[in-house]
């Protein structure tokens, strides 16, 4: 049995630690935030809630479809039977497709909690330095506390944090320089009264907003208020990275009023800036496992940008780690 440090408690980190734990290894998961799930995030307010990160996910590969079926059987996720619309500058039309969309239930990170059994977590712990000690690894947090030692370190943090942690001679560094993560502002709104908006979800291409949905239409969500989530485009967000709440709510209310055809009354709202919202990179292979240094990488940004990419990258890394420590 080996002892591993996993940095990051999003889907990649938790599913990786779960797989290694199931294989008989001991895993400690370090997460800088207070909760688990990363972008699989639901925020609860006094009397309403909303998914302000990942809005839904799909399954394409047979391997991930089988895992999604398992999550569904355990009651961790549900199908969201939504027909998306498409919003143009002058038009709003249905845009039906054959895509099956899933959401965590009753919160977006429900499967994260289900996969966490048997794992040890250090939340609100930002690891900012790795130290090689006697063939193993010691971790240091931002307050100078140390942890370890560990047989291997497995990094599933966002791209920028992962780059900062890797040793200078890491084999993955050249390829990682081709990867990028773009930001997104997210604004959540609870309405005083039903809006009458026909669409439950829409994709937009007006240069400001890319996505809006009636979050309360998702299965298992409270219905005390009609709630909406608006995601702003990466380019608009990058140009308004320090936007104040007034600008964000003005843009969001303008959109909802336009969809409803009349002014809407807002009960409550908040905005959240995701600095590392969506991954993209050139067609290069990022090495995930360095057996010589006993350090690994996983996350959607290692393969693409979808939730499925995060899970597949975790399974790929788990296979390689288990082979090294068999």
TrEMBL record:
Pfam families: Amino_oxidase (PF01593), NAD_binding_8 (PF13450). One of its GO terms (molecular function) is oxidoreductase activity. InterPro entries: Amino_oxidase, FAD/NAD-bd_sf. It comes from the Bacteria. Residues 108-321 form the Amine oxidase domain. PANTHER family: FAD/NAD(P)-BINDING OXIDOREDUCTASE FAMILY PROTEIN, FAD_NAD(P)-BINDING OXIDOREDUCTASE FAMILY PROTEIN. This is FAD dependent oxidoreductase.
């Amino acid at each position: 049995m080996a002892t591993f440090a996993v940095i990051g408690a999003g889907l990649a980190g938790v599913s990786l630690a779960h797989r290694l734990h199931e294989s008989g290894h001991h895993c400690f998961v370090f997460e800088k935030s207070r909760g688990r799930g990363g972008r699989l995030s639901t925020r609860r307010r006094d009397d309403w809630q909303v998914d302000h990160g990942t809005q839904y996910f799909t399954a394409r590969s047979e391997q991930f479809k089988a895992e999604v079926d398992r999550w569904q059987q355990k009651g961790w996720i549900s199908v969201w039977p939504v027909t998306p619309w498409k919003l143009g500058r002058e038009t709003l039309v249905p845009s039906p497709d054959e895509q099956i969309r899933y959401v965590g239930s009753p919160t977006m990170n429900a499967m994260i909690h289900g996969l966490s059994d048997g794992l040890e977590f250090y939340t609100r712990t930002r690891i900012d330095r790795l130290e090689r000690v006697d063939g193993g690894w010691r971790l240091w947090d931002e307050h100078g506390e140390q942890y370890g030692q560990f047989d291997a370190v497995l990094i599933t943090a966002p791209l920028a944090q992962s780059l900062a942690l890797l040793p200078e001679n890491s084999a993955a560094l050249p390829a990682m320089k081709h990867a990028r993560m773009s930001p997104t502002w997210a604004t959540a709104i609870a309405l005083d009264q039903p809006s009458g908006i026909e669409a439950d979800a829409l994709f937009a291409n007006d240069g400001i907003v890319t996505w809006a949905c009636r979050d309360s239409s998702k299965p298992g969500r409270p219905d005390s208020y009609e709630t909406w989530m608006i995601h702003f485009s990466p380019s608009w967000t990058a140009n308004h990275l320090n936007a104040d709440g007034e600008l964000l709510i003005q843009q969001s209310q303008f959109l909802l009023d336009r969809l409803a055809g009349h002014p809407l009354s807002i009960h409550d709202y908040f905005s959240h800036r995701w600095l590392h919202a969506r991954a993209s990179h050139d067609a290069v292979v990022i090495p995930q496992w360095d057996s010589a240094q006993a350090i690994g990488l996983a996350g959607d940004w290692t393969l693409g940008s979808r939730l499925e990419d995060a899970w597949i990258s975790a399974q790929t890394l788990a296979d390689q780690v288990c082979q090294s420590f068999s």
